[in-house]
Write a structure and sequence with these properties.
two-stranded antiparallel sheet; 2% strand; globular; Rhomboid_protease_S54; transmembrane; Rhomboid-like_sf
Length: 195
C-alpha cells in the first residue's frame, strides 16, 4: 500500500509552491506584467524575473497540469523532501532554467511555468530512489531522459500546446533536468569531502 509523506517537513515545500502559484494566477494580468520571464525586461535589470517567471502560468489548464505534477512528485519522492532543502533546490532550479533560457535560447522572449524546475525535481527524486537501492529510481531516471530526448528530436506536444495556449518550452525541461544533475553532483562532492 502506498504510504504518502504527510509530515510538515515533507509537505510544506510543495504546499508553498502550490499556494504561490495559485496566488500569482489569481493576480493576473499584473503578476505576468511584473514577474514573467521577459528577455527585454531582464536585460534592463529586472533580474528577479529569472526566479519568478517559473511560478506563473498561461491559463488554468497550465496551472492545473503543473500542480498535478507537484502532487505526483511529492507522492513519489516527498519522503526525501525537507522544507529548507526543497526551497533551496527550487531556487537553484529556477535560476538555472531561466539562465539557460536567457543564455542559450536567445529567441525565447517570454516564458512562464513550473515544468522546467519540475523536471529537475524529478531527476533529483529519481536519484534519491537509486541511492536507496530502488529499481524504480533507475526506471524513472531513464524514463525522464528518454522523454527529454524525444522532445528534443520530435518537438513539443501539439496537444499540450493547445491545452495551455502557448508553446511548450521543451528546452526549459532540458535545462531543468541538467540542473537537477548538477545538484546531484554537488551533493556527491560535498558527501565525499565530508567522508
Amino acid at each position: 500500500m502506498l504510504r504518502l509523506p504527510y509530515s510538515w517537513s515533507h509537505s510544506l515545500g510543495p504546499l508553498l509552491v502550490a499556494a504561490v502559484s495559485i496566488m500569482l494566477f489569481f493576480a493576473e494580468p499584473s503578476s505576468s506584467m511584473w514577474l514573467a520571464f521577459d528577455r527585454e525586461a531582464i536585460a534592463q535589470g529586472q533580474w528577479w524575473r529569472l526566479l519568478t517567471g517559473n511560478f506563473l502560468h498561461t491559463n488554468l489548464n497550465h496551472l492545473l497540469l503543473n500542480l498535478a505534477a507537484v502532487l505526483l512528485l511529492w507522492s513519489l519522492h516527498g519522503q526525501y523532501y525537507r522544507t529548507g532543502h526543497y526551497a533551496m533546490m527550487l531556487f537553484t532550479l529556477s535560476l538555472g532554467v531561466s539562465f539557460g533560457l536567457y543564455v542559450f535560447e536567445p529567441t525565447m522572449q517570454w516564458y512562464v511555468g513550473l515544468s522546467g524546475i519540475l523536471h529537475g525535481v524529478f531527476v533529483w527524486g529519481a536519484y534519491q530512489d537509486i541511492r536507496q537501492g530502488l529499481t524504480s529510481g533507475w526506471i524513472l531516471m531513464i524514463g525522464v531522459w528518454v522523454k527529454i530526448l524525444n522532445e528534443q528530436l520530435s518537438g513539443p506536444s501539439v496537444g499540450i500546446a493547445q491545452l495551455i495556449q502557448a508553446s511548450v518550452a521543451i528546452d526549459a525541461h532540458l535545462f531543468g533536468a541538467f540542473c537537477g544533475l548538477i545538484i546531484i553532483i554537488c551533493s556527491l562532492i560535498k558527501l565525499q569531502k565530508n567522508s
